[in-house]
Amino acid sequence: MIKVGKLNTLKIVGSDNLQYTLSDDESNIVSLPHTNTLSPISKDAEEITVFVYTNKQGALTATTKKPYAEVGDYALLKVVAEAPNGVFMDLGIEKDLFVPKKEQRWPMVKGKSYLIHIYLDPLNNHMVGSSRLNKYIDRDELSVEVGDEVELIISEETDLGYNAIINNRHIGLLYANEVFENLRIGNKRKGWIKKIYPDGKIDLSLQPLGYEHILNSREMIIDLLKKRNGRIPLGDKSSPEEVYKILKISKKTFKKAIGALYKERLIEISDEEIKETKQ
Question: Where in this chain does the record put each S1 motif domain (predicted)?
Answer without folding.
Answer: 70-132, 145-207
